[in-house]
Amino acid sequence: MKRWFIVGVPVILAAALGVLGVARETAVYLYSDQVLLQFDPSDEYSVTIVWFNVYETLLRYYPEEDRFEGVLAKSYEVSEDGLVWTFHCVRGLNSIPET
Q1: Which of 4, 29, 33, 38 has a CA that sits 20 to 30 A from residue 65's CA?
Q2: Whether the predicted model's global pTM rises above the 0.85 cut
């Protein structure tokens, strides 16, 4: 019964929105390598939020401008085939020591 509810309700809602003629102007895609065990974002993404507050990324992506900006990487180079990325990191970075 739960499986039908989880799958059936979104399908019915999507079909109903199609009948109403709601225009989709923007598509938003989200990638996460975290395995979803529940559909409740307050439970599922709490670990991800902690990681974003503890660790910093090499680059930050700005989708409005379709560009990357260095955060821990002061500059970077991409090979012509796009398979090799070389990052030149900011000096003096420290890591959390392993226990």
Answers
A1: 33
A2: no
Task: Give the angle subtended at the CA of 90 by the CAs of 87 and 94, to the nearest 5°.
Answer: 110
**Helix/strand/coil percentages in the chain, nearest 5:** 30, 20, 50
Pairing verdict, β 67-70 and 59-62: antiparallel
What distance in Å separates the CA atoms of residue 36 and residue 7, rounded to the nearest whole number? 15
Phi, psi of 70 (to 5 degrees): -70, 140
| Tens-place pLDDT, residues 10-39 | 666 666 655 555 556 766 666 666 666 665
Angle at 34 between CA 7 and CA 76, to 5 degrees: 130
